[in-house]
Fold these 2 entries.
Entry 1:
Amino acid sequence: MYRILDRDSVPEYLMSLPNVVDVLGTTSNLVIDEIGDGNLNFVYRVTNGDEPGRSVILKQAVPYLRLAGEDWPLSRDRMTFEIRALQLYNELVPEFVPTIFHADEEMSALVMQNLSDHIILRLGMIDGVTYPKVATDIGVFMAETLFRTSAWGMDSEDRRQLMDRFTLNSELCKLTEDFIFTFPYMTHESNYESPETEAWADANLRNNAAYKLDVLRFKDLFVAKTDALLHADLHSGSLMVNQDETFVIDMEFAYFGPFGFDVGKIISNFILCCTAHHHLPGGAEYREWLLDQIVVIWDTFSARFRELWDQQGESAMLTAGLLSAEEDAQLKDAFMAQLLQESAGFAACSMARRTLGIAGVADIRDIEDPVVRSNLEIANLELSMLVMANRTNLSSIGDLLTLVRDFYSQRSLDS
Amino acid sequence: MYRILDRDSVPEYLMSLPNVVDVLGTTSNLVIDEIGDGNLNFVYRVTNGDEPGRSVILKQAVPYLRLAGEDWPLSRDRMTFEIRALQLYNELVPEFVPTIFHADEEMSALVMQNLSDHIILRLGMIDGVTYPKVATDIGVFMAETLFRTSAWGMDSEDRRQLMDRFTLNSELCKLTEDFIFTFPYMTHESNYESPETEAWADANLRNNAAYKLDVLRFKDLFVAKTDALLHADLHSGSLMVNQDETFVIDMEFAYFGPFGFDVGKIISNFILCCTAHHHLPGGAEYREWLLDQIVVIWDTFSARFRELWDQQGESAMLTAGLLSAEEDAQLKDAFMAQLLQESAGFAACSMARRTLGIAGVADIRDIEDPVVRSNLEIANLELSMLVMANRTNLSSIGDLLTLVRDFYSQRSLDS
C-alpha cells in the first residue's frame, strides 16, 4: 500500500527489498540525505554508514507537485512512466542510465544506482568545467533512443504496443504544454517576476504574431506528433556527468512525441549557458567550448541516427524494394534537414520558456545583479526569436551556430 | 464465448438480445441476407418475415481477412474499435451514423439500424445519380468528428484518455500503411494486374523520386500524427445515402491520425469517379456535379470547423488571453490553408492506391474494356502526381479544382 516515505521509514523500506540489501548490505547504520533539487519528487541518497562505498538512490513520487506543495495535486502515475522509460533505456542504452535495483509502481518508488562520482551537468557548466565526452554521449543517447523507438526503427505493431504504455502520461504532458508552449507567451501569474524582462517581452515578443503562431505550431507537434519515445525533459539538469561518463536521469516526462523536442531542448541549454558566460567567469574560451558542443551533439546524433537507419531492415516506415539507393539517400538528407529545423524551433521555445516561465535555469536566475540578469534574459529572448524566425533557412548545424555567434558579436554582452 | 455466426445460428443469437427483440419483434420467421461487400467482415441484413418493416443489420468480425480467407489471420479486435468509434459518433453526430441496438465485444458483433432506404454512395455515383445533401453532410460529419476529438476541441487529458482507446488498432493501421502508402509505389505481388497501367507506373511514377518521397512524408503523417479520431476509411463505399440523408458506416479503421487523411480520402473518391464518368454515361454534366461536390465538401467542412473553433472555450491548444483577435484569425487562416494542402496530398496517395493497389474502386475496375480502363487508370495516376507536386501551391479549394479541370480538358479523356 502506498505511503509517503521519510527519513524514519526509508531504512525499513529499503531493508525489506532483497535486491537493495544486496547492494547496501545489511546495516542499521544508514545515512540518509535528501538531495532532490527537482520540482516534482523526493530523492534520497542512502549510504551504508559502515561501508560508505555502498549506496543507492531512492526516488519517490508524492501525490502533489513538490515545488508547489500539497495544494497542487499531481498523480503519482508519473513514476509509472519513469519506471517504464528507465527500464526500456536500460535495454537500449544501459551505459547512459542508472541501473535499477528495485522498481515499485505501488509505492511510486524507484531504487537505483547512486552516481556518486558524477555531478549535474548544469552545475558543472555554470562553473565553467569542460567534459570531453558529454556531447558525443548525448548525441549517441538521443540517436539510439529516438531511432529505436520510432516507426523508422520499429515494426508498426510493436511500436503501437510501446506507444500504448506511455499515452496516459497526461499530467506531465499537460505541464509541458502549459509551461513551455503557452504561459510564457502571455501575461500569466505563473511567469517569472523580472520587471524589465517582462516589459521587453510585452513590447517585443508577446505582440509578435509570427513568433507566437510558430510557437503554437511547435505546441501542436508536441501534442500530436508521436515520432518516438522521448525523454521529454532532456536539459542539462537531467544529465549527471564526469570526465569519463554521462548518465541521463529523470525520465518521468517520457512519452511519444516529436524527435526535435529532445534535440532542441538540450541544444537550448548550451545556448542559455553560453549567454550566461558573458557574465559568469568562463569567458570567451568557455563560450566557444559550449557552442562547439552543440555541433558535436548534432553531428554525433545525426551520424548515429543515419547509421542505425542504414543498418535497419524493414520497419513500419522502411520497405525493401521501395526506394532506390539514390532515393534512400535523398530521403535521409531531407529527413535530417527537416529534423534540424524542427530542433531549432523547439530550442527557440525552450529558450523563451526558461527565461519568462516559472522554471528558469540557474545559469541565469542565480545571477544576483538584476540589471545584468535582465540584460542576459533579454538576449536569450532575442535569440529565441531569431532562431525561430530563421529556422527554415538552416541547412546545417553550422548555419545555426553562425546565427548565434553573429548575434553575440553584434549584441556585445560582455560585462 | 466467441463463435462465428452463420445463417443457422443468427436467429438464436439475435433473439437472445432483448434490445434487438424490441426492434425485430419475436418471430421464428427471420429472413437473413448476407450483404457484406466489404473485404473484412460478415454483414447480415435480418428482417422479420411477417413484418418486413422490422429489420436490423448484424455485423461480425471473423479472425481472418475475409477477402483473403482463413490463411490471412486478422484479429477480431477491429470490431472493438468499430464499436468504440460508432458509440462515440452516436454521441457526436447521431444524425449521420446508424443507431446501435447491441454491441458485443466478446462476439465481435454489432447489431444496428438497417438503412433500408439508402444505397452505397459509390453505386449511386457510378449510376450518375445526384444527391443534394451528401456533400454538406460529409463536410459537417468531418468537421464535427475531427474538431471535437482533437486537441483544438478537447482538453489535453481527456484527449489522451480517448486516444488511449484507439492506440492499439494496430492491424488495421498496418493495412493502410502497406496498401495505401507502400505497395502501390513498388513492384508487389498484391498490386492489381493491369499490364499497361503497371508499365506506365514503372516508367513514370515508381521512378519519380520526388513523388515517392512525398508519399513517404504522408505515410509518416499517417503513422505518427495524432490530430483527431479519424474514420480512416471514409470513401464513397463507406457512405449510405438517399435524397434526404447521409449515413457513415464501417468505422473499423478508426484511430488517431492526421486531419487531412479523412478529408483527402473522400475528395479523391469524387475525382476517381469523375475520371470514370469520361466513360460512364454520366457525361460532362455529371462530372461537373462531382467536382462541384468537392468544393461543397471543403467549404462546408472548413466553415463548420472554424465555427466550432470560434465557439470553443479553452482546450489543449486554445488558451484565453494568448492570442489577439487578429492573431487568432491569422492562425485559423494558416491552419485551414495547411489542412487543405495536407488533404490534397492524402488525396493523391488515395488516387494512386485505388489505381495500382489491391483495392480498386468499382467506378474504374468494373469497366470491361481493358484499353478504356487502362487509359482512365493512367489518367488517375497522372492526376495523383499532379496534385502531389502542386499541393503546396494550393491556396484555396478552387485552386485544386482548377488543377483537376485543366488536366481533364488537356487530356481529352472523352470516349
Note: DSSP finds 15 helices and twelve strands in chain A.
Entry 2:
Amino acid sequence: MIQHIPSLEKLVNELAKLPGVGPKTAQRLAYHILRSPAAYNDNLRAALEGVKNSVHECARCFSFTENADLCHYCLDPKRTDESICIVEDPADIIRIDTSGAFRGRYHVLHGTLSPLDGVGPKDIRLEPLLERVTREPIREIILALDADLEGDTTALYTAKQLRGLNLTAQDGTRRPLRISRLAHGIPIGGDIDYMDYRTIGRAIENRVEL
Amino acid sequence: MIQHIPSLEKLVNELAKLPGVGPKTAQRLAYHILRSPAAYNDNLRAALEGVKNSVHECARCFSFTENADLCHYCLDPKRTDESICIVEDPADIIRIDTSGAFRGRYHVLHGTLSPLDGVGPKDIRLEPLLERVTREPIREIILALDADLEGDTTALYTAKQLRGLNLTAQDGTRRPLRISRLAHGIPIGGDIDYMDYRTIGRAIENRVEL
C-alpha cells in the first residue's frame, strides 16, 4: 500500500519486521503512533533505548538481566543450586517460574539444534552448559524444550552430552546426574476430542496411577 | 507477569499501549526486540523519531504529510477539486484511494461525533470543512464514515451543516452541493448466512436493478 509519506513508510516497514505483525497491522500501529500524543513516541523510543543500553545476558545462565553480572534467578538465595532447568529462550523462564513447580536455577540455550537450518551445537549455549555442570554441584537437569522436532533433537543431544561428563562430588565420589524432560500429555482443560493421536498416545504411555 | 528487569518491563508497558497488543503480545514483541541485532532497535527508534519530526497534518485536508504545506492528494493535478470525500482518519484515505473509484480530494475529520464520550462538533475538523466548502468550487461531498452509531450521527450532522451553507458559483449563481454517503450492503465475497439482519435489510432497500 502506497503511503506517499516516506518516513511513515519507513516506520511501517520496521514494525512489520516484528513477529505476528503483517503489513496491515504495521500500518494500523504506525497510524496509531502518529495520532497519539508526541509523549508516547518519546516514551516508546526511551524504552527501546533503555533495553538496548541496560539489558544483557547473565554471565552464568544466559537469561536476560540488567544487573552488573548475574541475573535475578542466579542471585536468588532461596533457590537450590542442585537443579537446573534448560530452556530455549529467556521468555520461557517466566512461564516456568510462574508455575511455581520449580525453584532451582536456569540455563538458556538461546536456540535449538536444527540441522536443516544449519544450527549446530556450536551455535547454541551448550558448551557453557557442560562446563557449568562440571563445575557446579548440579544433580538434576530438567530439559524444558518445545515438544517439536528441534526441541526433541536438542533434548536428546544435550542428554547424551551430559551423560558423557565425568562428574565428581565435593567428597571425591562420583556425582550422579538425573536428567528428565517435561511430560507430554493432555493440557489442563484440554478436550480429548481435539487432541492429536500422538499426544493421546504419549498421555496413555505416561499414564499416572491413581 | 514479573520480569525482574525494570527496563524490559517499561518496554512491555509501552508496547501494550498499542491497539490490539495485550500484555502477552507486548512481552513477545519485547523479547523479540531484545533477541534481534542492536541495529533493529536503532532502526525502529530512528523510524519513530522520523515520523515525530517530519509528519504533520496537511494545511488543507488535514491528512498526514511530510511536505511543507499540502499533502500528496491536495497537490495531485489529476484530481478534481469539485468532489471531496470526508473520512474519519488519515488511514481511511489509503483504503478508499486504492479502490480507484474516487479521484477527488479528501477531508479528514480526525474523529467522529460521540456525545456519550463528550466529543462534539468543535472537537473534530468540521468548522474547517464548512469554510473549505464555502471557499473552494466543491459540488459533491461523499461521507465515507464508519457504519456505526458515531459514523451515522456524524454523517447526518455534517450533511445538515453543509445544507445550511449559502454557496455561490464563480458566475454568481447558486452553487448546488450533492451530498452522499457510502452504500451499505453485503460485502463482496460475503456470505448471506453470516450477515446480520440490519445489513440484509439495507441491502434489500438499496437493491440495484439488473
Note: The radius of gyration of chain B is 22 Å.
